[in-house]
Amino acid sequence: MERRIKTGLRMVPVVIFVLFFYVFLHESGHTIVALASGSKITEFDLFSTRPHMNYKGGNYTLFSTLWLHANGSLLPLFVSYIVAITYKKEIQNFFYRAFCFLFCTINTCSFLVWAVVPLLYMNGYMDAGEDAFKFTKIFFMYQDPRIISVFALLLTGLGALLIFWKEIPRHFFQHVRGLPKKENAT
Asked: What is the Cα gyration radius of the chain?
């Protein structure tokens, strides 16, 4: 029981860091597109109950508007791909393994929202504040929104493939349980 409490206490700063890093990347994703479109950033808030960025002006095309809504989710997802690709199993540090596991898993699983939202939108459900709905509403004017679902599932599958190929969950849970490392049979 003592090991579980110790692990739980060690996870608190990791979870806080992962959530803060995700929010930073999410808002940065929107900001990058806004700046590239010539907007002036008027607010970049990571610490309120609803983190957000605001901008003024800019020259937006159909593509940049779609990209503005999508990049809040895509930037953290692509960073999680980089974390997974560069993951080093030799590093035995708890924070490192917990961060890699949580960050990669959360970003990969959270992208499933983009697979579900177009289907909800097609059935009349709309959340005007959600990036995926804003994207779908614009995309639906030109293409079948199920394309978004398929693309989101492919990106989620790629993330899951990277996570399991690099054995990130296995190394994390071995570390948490204090299990011996699996020896290579040669």
From this structure: 19
Contact between 122 and 144 (Cβ < 8 Å) = no
The amino acid at residue 29 is: G
Q: pLDDT in tens for each of the 186 residues of the chain?
A: 687 888 889 999 999 999 999 999 999 999 999 999 999 999 999 999 999 999 999 999 999 999 999 999 999 999 999 999 999 999 999 999 999 999 999 999 999 999 999 999 999 888 878 899 999 999 999 999 999 999 999 999 999 999 999 999 999 999 888 855 554 544
CA-to-CA distance for 135 and 18, rounded, in angstroms?
Answer: 25
Q: Which sign, positive or negative, has the C-alpha torsion 62, 114, 137, 127?
A: negative
Q: 3-class DSSP state for residue 40? A: strand
For residue 143, what is the DSSP state?
S
Amino acid in the structure at residue 73: S
